[in-house]
Design brief:
This protein is mainly β. The protein is about 10% helix and about 45% strand. It is globular, with a radius of gyration of 29 Å. The relative contact order is 0.11.
Length: about 450
Amino acid sequence: MVTCDDQGTSVPVEVWLIDAAGRADFCTAYVNVQANLVGCNTPATATVAGALTNGTQGVEQANVELNGTPNVNMTFPTGDNGAFNFANVPMGANITVTPTKDDNPLNGVTTYDLVLVSKHILGLEPLNTPYKMIAADANRSGSITTFDIVEFRKLILGIYNELPNNTSWRFVDKSYSFPDPSNPFQSAIPENISIGSLSGNMMVNNFEGVKIGDVNGTAIANSLQSVDDRTAATMLFDVQDRTVKAGEVFTVNFKGAERVQGYQFTMNFNGLEVVDIVPGTDMKLDNFGVFADAITTSVDGAANEFAVTFRATKAGQISNMLGVSSRITKAEGYSLTNDRLDVAFRFNGAAGSVISGVGFELYQNQPNPFVNKTFIGFHLPEAANATLRIFDETGRMVFTQNGEFAKGYNTISVDRALLNTTGLLYYTLETATDSATKKMIQSK
């Protein structure tokens, strides 16, 4: 017997056929039950919606979960406007809305943020919103201390791939009023919205997205935003140039040519091995990361002189064996007037001085692996026409984009829908003079 409880389901029925001689057989068919002539009471539903924003920008590629009783379990991935919309939520349900996003932890996080966090700790320039203070709490301890600076620095230096005790983003109920805005940790921070016995549409469940580590508001929340990478000048480190012999152990002194508030960069080296690092005044070994072919450094403060002892594995010229890069830690400095600076080495030798900055570089896409969208960054030493091509494992080109790009750091966003493939991919950036290739993974 079919009842209203079967409405909207497929019910199996037997269809029989009998001929004149009495022979019979049947097959099983499925009927979609609908209340056409006899009315059934359709369960009442409502819509639950809202948005995730970082200031005025929507936060995309976040997952918003709607859970509750009875039998409510839904997920909505946000687009570039940060909006989410759950339809057909049962009336009377007890539900909770919880947004999460935990990718690209370095988005918006630089040593300049550490400069600002340090000024807050010292009471020189307190962070002026509760959201900035939440962003400064690296280890989610409910306080802002020098240990937070240590944790962020490990992320900047490439020692951490993610913060061990925090997510990349936190989301705060936008309707929440902090009892004490100067201390947002005084009470539990509401990171979800609960609704008891849903009685109608709930359309304004909004959250403020807080990018952890970004206290100066430079994080890119969606693909509609552009990166402002303009620099006012170049911070130079003077280095004495000379030739070295294979097997020679020697020390290179790096001395900043001007006072700054801080800086960070990657130093590539080839034909060399690191023997020792001697931090300058007001610096520690914690200001450096050492890798097989690179050293990273992050300094928040005026200290701008340090030394590195190398062992040469081959003969060569120091200026040909060392170079500034952004491939692990992005190269930039911060002037006393808060301007962003390029970073370069000035090699001084018998033949004069040679300045060497960041050259052509293609960076690892972020996030990687990715589901819906990823960003591919690259650095051009001069403005140029460049072409990005993406290939699948068979070598078939699945995406291409060509354009004129500015000197310095640039990004191209790549949407999953444009690729029409999954798995391992290769991407190549090419200009008239340079090219580079890297791998990435589209995971679904």
